[in-house]
Structures
1.
Amino acid sequence: MIIAERKPIEEILEMVRDFKKILIVGCKGCVTVCNAGGRKEVGILASIIRLAREKDKNPIEIIEETLERQCDPEYIEQLADTAHEYDAILSMACSVGPQFIAARFSEARVFPALNTEFMGGALEHGVWAEFCQGCGDCKIHLFGGFCPIARCSKSLLNGPCGGSSGGKCEISKDVDCVWHLIVEKLMSEGKLDQLTQVKPIKNWATSRDGGPRKVVREDLKL
Amino acid sequence: MKSGSNLEKVLTAGHFAVTGECGPPRSADGKIVREKAKHLKGNVDSVNVTDNQTSVVRLSSLAGSLLLHQEGLEANMQMTCRDRNRIAMQSDILGAYALGVRNLLCLSGDHQKFGDHPEAKNVFDIDSLQLIQTVKMMRDERKLLSGQEMEEGTEPRLFIGAAVNPFADPFDFRVYRLAKKAAAGVDFVQTQCIYNMAKFKEYMKRAHDMGLTEKVFVLAGITPMKSLGMARYMKNYVPGMDVPDLIIDRLKGVEKKGQAKEGIQIAVDQIQEMKEIPGVAGVHIMAIEWEEKVPELVEKAGLLPRPQV
């Protein structure tokens, strides 16, 4: 899923400083699962902003709403009747959400309340890590089920580099060396040959480097 | 001869090779490179010119290489995969060769997090193994990665180098990574600074047994310790560095103002030991900001005069 994190409250307060009536809109997709922008987080953020503004003697009216998804125009449409009523709309979806809202309601002032971090999963309660970079050409089966593109700091296809130490990456003791994991797994499975062949240069055209991407499924088009 | 470089000639003739290292300055002051060159001239067979090492912006490795050439030294131009994509790398390789560079060292590069621009975007379009393959293809097949061919006599005929770190983890895989570099087409490798001789000997034994030392010239990395403080720092804070207590104890055993001398003596002893290890084709001396000690070190280690080939 998409992992996101709420922006620092100071940054959000600055965004809405001049507004008297705003909508905070959450999303029931990924950001609900990673506790960043679901119904609960919408309520918490609204309370924090209200309290801060009352303290500043500059009260604000906040409407709370949470859409099924913000990455689908049909759900954005649910805001059509009311969007014009707000001084600003603060989206708590990944950055797709505020972009969709801004595109649909050209008069509205739309702000992102979250920083969209990465595609990843939960390691434990409250801890998420990056697992995918969306390179458009998945080859994890060649690397013992690990992705060196997203999980090696240098995206090496022929690692580990000389900075791997005690299973950790040279950039931080908090970052696992994914190449250490790949080598340990494949060597323990007796698949040394998978490690010793030089992996060819990657075609990055399927990744972001090829320009903004689009997936078209003719069979699904109406 | 693949490149006809001095380093290639020395190694191919069977001499115990000596390479040095020169880190360019954090300014446009070419005099600094020329000064460092003076200490190295006549004492080494060729000199590595680092490519923004530890991700700190410095005068470029190509410019540094040319400055060394002007001083009558031969450069091993370093090239990392951190800052250039395949387009820029091939372009720089062609340009470097046209300007007289004959040895190229292919490196992944330190992550920019360590340097003076931690907010930079990195590249890592290709990795060091793929860079080795690329340079070999340009040289031996006269082709660019696009398939574009070069006319005979217009291809960059470079002696291809790489780095290996026998002390990084996982240790058991390290010799296979050397094997991969050999398969990719590397001609010589230089190792990370060696202090743990027992572990290095084990690594070399494995490399030798696998026949790798027949295919690749291995130059053992030597960095003399300036002080006990430096030894402790390298032991505790430099990733992938293995400094055994034996080294610490030797430096501890002498008073502070004698530690630099002891550091040189440790390096001399190491070089003598390296000469006896099967498959070690030479040493790579990295006297970090201590180039002026190189003449004394090679003299004491019995590495002079350097062969004229």
Note: The radius of gyration of chain A is 22 Å.
2.
Amino acid sequence: MKTDKETNWTEKYETILGEVPFTTSSFRDQQRLIVAPRELLRVLELLKANAGMDMLIDITAVDYLEMEGSTDRFEVVYCLLNTESGERLVVLTHLNEPDLKLPSVNALWRAADWLEREVYDMFGIVFEGHPNFKRLLLPQEFSSFPLRKDYPMRGRGERHNFPVITRANS
Amino acid sequence: MPLELLAPATEDESRRDGLWTLNFGPQHPATHTTLRLVLQLDGELVLDAEPDIGFLHSGFEKLAEELDFNQYVTIVDRMNYISPLANEIAWHHAVEKLVGIELTPRCRYLRTILAELMRISDHLLCTGACMLDVGGVTGFMYFFNERERIYEICEKASGQRFHTSYTRVGGMLYDVTDDWLKMVSEFIERFAAAHKDVSRLVLKNRIFVERAAGVGVLDRESAINGGATGPVARASGVARDLRRDEPYLAYDDLDFDVICSQSGDCFARFQVRMLEMLESVKIVQQCLQKLPTGPIFAAGTGKESMPDKRVVYQSIEGLIHHFESVMPNRQMAVPRESIYAATEAPNGELGFYLVSDGSFKSYRARTRPPSLLHFALFQQMIRGCMLSDVVAVLGSLNIIAAELDR
């Protein structure tokens, strides 16, 4: 059963998104839209233009590999904020290997620049159309994606592949 | 005298022959932390600056998947180490929102006092370092003297000056003493004098104003589009403060102003931080007056909170109760959900996106560090400025590399 409040906000986004299919869920005060990866860019465009979501607070991802009962491997999370009304919204989309590609939202929010690079760095999700797409925090030569659940806590010894330059050889 | 800003360098222009590439950092006195900039210079003019970060990346978010909600507090301490308690409060705010714990009034007020002391401490360092970078060592010394008092207050409360690890899920390690409250009120009283000294020293000082005014301008639209929050956004005219807009802790009952400016330059950011310190003083004073008595841990089924240390050491029930809350197989039930919760940290919106699998540790704990989004805006802000403005802009953004790289 949906409460009245929940029906209200769901209806609001139904009007804004028009024919784009989406599902909703909520937890405490958090409202979530779940959309398919191919609809993502369209949904975010509509939310920015018609729902006043002018600030992109965060982009992150979750690897559901070890979560019981999960159906999709990766979930990419977009946290949006309307700075006028203070309204927040979380947009979720699910990805599975081998198709780990999403459109970049750099053109909508400049904040996406480093956030998308960090998600790639940690999870290996590729954002197509990003102007300067490379790793953000880890060295460019690094070959793994450490926040994936199948990456061991203590690493795989990558650190030994990097040459140590001693003072005598420098 | 404000500088005339040049149009942003185009791709061709910044690759032009005769330019000088300057490697700024990762170890440089003015970066204060470990970050690197690759500057493209035409004489003294900065055409482009490419930030390179990640030197302090230490896998905090991976560690969050290994440590439980109470253990991870020692790691969040080390994110923005200029104001460690503000991170702890943000972290446990997110955990408590996920679990659904209602804090006791005393705990809410104490955390508010600590959060505001941390805001003062952070702003003291940021404004102090900003003065230092443009050549004003005196103000820095005056402010560091005051920060020392805040460290003493932290030490008195938690036993640790720096990495306090003071908050716990649903409460705090222990309650504070009356001595501590006296210490805070004494600090608040004498702080105004130091603040006034430094204000008189720099706010109308021609050398300082000319180094800061009109430099590194961030307009309102770019601030919103680039995800700027906190003092950086407020200096650019974005009137948003989570303490007022999404009240948490005791901020609902308190009276304070949100400081904003329109010009969005280094001087505006400096002024916003200076004035916010006075608002924090106002908040702490009100909290000290209104501070309720009562338990510090949230009441509930008993599993939801840790018992008072005196009860633990003096009664068998207390000891059992303590064991119930610390044994990994007896921890409180956490909903299998995800949530984003944010607080207004001194630097901006510090949020955590938590995903839980029902156990007492997070399945995924994403930190949304304000520094990351602010530093991403740096490239745009510095184009067309002079080489000597690099340190002024960096100082006014208060980039903390440990929080940036996690």
Note: Residues 117 and 134 of chain A are 6 Å apart (CA to CA).
